[in-house]
Amino acid sequence: MGSSVTLIFTLVILAGMMFFMTRSQKKQQQKRQDLLSSMKIGDQVVTIGGLHGVLSEVNDSTVLIDCEGIILEFDRSAIRTVTPTASVANNHETPAKDEDKNTSSETHETPEDK
């Protein structure tokens, strides 16, 4: 009697672990599929090989990536990360604002200078 309870308890634990592992894997697959389907021209991407570039064309199974004037064709599944165009533009604006602040503080006159 005691061994059958232990066996049932072990099977329930294993079934629960399998359920949660499968569930998290499906969530990851769905997230990746959403990422790949949301790609559009002008987005900055990084491939699984570490190549950085900007999407110049998006097809059903392939994408063309512009890497500083060199156009390369990759499978959609080779894309690891996608940064939307708006986020890329915001990242380029932020350092310029910081530089303006540093420049203006350097030219600030103190009362001793007068």
TrEMBL record:
Keywords: Cell membrane, Membrane, Protein transport, Translocation, Transmembrane, Transmembrane helix, Transport
A GO biological process held by the record: protein transport
Major site of localization recorded for this protein: membrane
Keyword Glycoprotein listed: no
Subcellular location as annotated: Cell membrane
GO cellular component: plasma membrane
Annotated InterPro entries: Preprotein_translocase_YajC (IPR003849)
Residue ranges, compositional bias (Basic and acidic residues): 94-114
Membrane-spanning ranges: 6-22
Superkingdom per UniProt: Bacteria
Region (Disordered): 83-114
Extent of Polar residues compositional bias: 83-93
Pfam family, any one: YajC
Entry membrane topology: Single-pass membrane protein
Similarity field: Belongs to the YajC family.
Name of the protein in question: Preprotein translocase subunit YajC
